[in-house]
Amino acid sequence: MTNEYGLIVLFLIGLFGGAHCIGMCGPLVATYAERMDRDDRWSGAITLYEVRQHALFNLGRTMSYAFIGGAFGAAGALLYGTVGLAGILGPFQGAVGIFTGIVVIVMGLTRLIGYRQGAVEGVIAGSGIGSAFTRSYTAISTRIDRWVSGIGIIGLGALHGLLPCMLLYPAFLYAFAQGSPVYGLFSLGALGLGTIPSVFLYGTVIQSVSTRQRQVVHYGLGLLFVGLGYVLLSMGFLRFGIELPRPEIPYYQPLAKSEGRL
User: Fold this and answer.
1) Which ranges carry the Urease accessory protein UreH-like transmembrane domain (predicted)?
2) Which of 64, 69, 111, 114 is 20 to 30 A from 104 in CA distance terms?
3) Is there a domain that residue 256 lies in?
4) Buried b (16+ CB within 10 A) or exposed e, 94-128
5) What is the 3-class SS of 58-103, one letter each residue?
6) Total domains, the chain
7) How far is 161 from 72, CA to CA, in rounded Å?
8) Which of 159, 166, 156, 163 is closest to 134 using CA atoms?
9) Which residues contact 158 (CB under 8 A, 6 or more apart)?
10) How far is it, in rounded angstroms, from Cα 73 to Cα 67?
């Protein structure tokens, strides 16, 4: 149930977080749209070529999120496997779940009390670890003209997975806490799929999202992050024998035990 609920929440985070993506990556997406080779006969109209290019860009971006999520899940699995050798796997997973859940909940609360878009990303990009993000920006800017008009735009989309993003950090933590590379891949893939409609429409049709709309979205994201953090928190406490109330999934049916059978 926890895994099913997590995938649904992550998809919704991506779906409703599209305005955040537009606010952070919109200028780059607009640049791609301007740099694409266009047939003058179709000037002012959306062509199948542009639709294909934006679809490839979003495919690369989603694949990048998924693979990074798989890497975080693998890191969690490796850590759990190492701790398992010491015979303290259950309590350790519980502690990781509780800690990560609290962090994600705090991230959600910051959005509810007045998150300023780009504030956290700016701090991280300016820190020591921000050099990786700086290199990603450089890699993107130097490859736009060469890659944007061909299949290489998939690579431009993939590089976006390395950019600082408050939409991704909680999801990466969630994948790490789950400790499964496969689930990490699927969970971040679900988030990436959720972001596609808004980013795709922004690149092909829409070129602006109002500040008010983004503010409303941030409140919604705050609620979703709190929900995602609560899933991790309840999972952690369950490892210590403490069961917190959890929402029911309509299509989820727990396996019933038949008499004499497991």
Assistant:
1) 10-230
2) 64
3) no
4) bebbbebbebbbebbebbeeebebeebbeebbeee
5) HHHHHHHHHHHHHHHHHHHHHHHHHHHCCCCHHHHHHHHHHHHHHH
6) 1
7) 13
8) 163
9) 60, 61, 63, 64
10) 10
Answer yes or no: are the C-beta atoms of 170 and 17 closer than 8 Å: no
For residues 96 and 62, give the distance between their C-alpha atoms in angstroms, rounded to a whole number.
26
Residue with token string 């985070």: 13
Q: Which residue has the tokens 């504030």?
A: 119
pLDDT of amino acid 63? 96
Nearest Cα to 170, choosing from 153, 152, 155, 191?
191
The residue type found at 67 is F
Q: Is 149 among the domain residues?
A: yes
- Would you call 247 helix, strand, or coil by DSSP? coil
Q: What is the average per-residue pLDDT within 132-159? A: 81
Whole domain around residue 161: which residue ranges? 2-238
CA-CA distance, 173 to 236, in Å (whole number)?
14
For the residues 102-119, what does the mean pLDDT come to? 75
What letter represents residue 155's amino acid? G
Residue 61, domain member (yes or no): yes
Q: Which two tokens stand for residue 200?
A: 């795709």
Lowest mean pLDDT among 156-170, 194-208, 220-234: 194-208
Q: How far apart are CA 166 and CA 249, in angstroms?
A: 27
